[in-house]
Write the structure tokens for this entry.
Amino acid sequence: MKIHPFEIAVAQAALDDLHQRLSQTRWPDEIPGSGWNYGSNLTYMKDLIRYWQTTFDWQHQEQQLNTLPHFRTMIDGMGIHFVHERGNGPHPFPLILTHGWPSSFVEMLKILPMLTDPARYGGDPADAFDVVIPSLPGYGFSDRPPRPEQGADTRIADMWSRLMTDVLGYPRFGAHGGDVGGGVTCQLGRLYPQQVIGIHVLNVSVLPYLGADAPPLSNQERTFLAERERWDAEEGAYAHIQHTRPQTLAYGLNDSPAGLAAWIVEKFRSWSDCDGEVERRFTKEELLTNISLYWLTQTINSSFGPYYADDDEGEALRKGERVEVPCAFALFPKNLEHPPRELAERGYNVQRWTQMPRGGHFPALEEPALLAEDLRAFFRPLREPRSTGE
């Protein structure tokens, strides 16, 4: 399989169109004193859109992004974009990082140098990784699937296995992910134990088998599942519409940059450890780089694919299925779920269970040092003395 260097190059016409649309934003009204209770706050959104229009410089961000080694390759007839950064150490070990929604590959860029060059951050060069950061199909600069497929996590795991082994020449590698990327990472560990030395995830993205003939639930497990249902009822409207009628939603988000920004930034605020002030955790530059990526590639609709295709396969392991490779769970307090360890141990070979002191759903951006150290600690005893890669 051929690998082609890739450079980000957004046409000036697309940027001019974006600025014109931002200048013509038609603002909704707002219930006085509602804050963020009804959704994205009007005062904050006006400030963010004003900054996007007058101050944010996509061309500067593009130049910075293009300092990284970007590539594209074809896997099963689909073009996949990825960053592949070599490690600086005696024997860097390959590690694939998979983002989720409403994120993109840019979420992983702050943690990237901490993993490839740990000595630069006071760490041991022996902990260096060769890091691969792909864009999920339908996200960013990867191709869009022609249709949503059931079992999307499994399908993408198949592609990632081929990317790492057939395309890049790594016979063994580690994997990390959260959200959609967590589901992909879990399936990588389950399906490819001969290639994957271990998985590191942020939550139990794929639930263990909990059928009628499974062992009885503990009190903690019952409490967790009840809390999960409450969260879905109170906060899960976004997922329900993306699962049922994504096309209808996409007309507004693909046509209005302000609407797209409101849809995405509300999740960065709600799901992060920011105490209600999103810019405690993310700068406007970070937020708008991610949002601009969705806008300029027109991929918000295709990013809904894993939600629309979601079924029981994407929610739970079937009877008899288990992830036997070593598994690590890094639980950040403001992430969406806080499962008990015994639930994970039903379907996973749990070797590390870390309760983080702070952070939320986007730890590679929020707490990159904490996440990097947990990744190093988990994979350190699993490493082989040498790894290869073309």
Q: What stands out?
A: The radius of gyration is 20 Å.
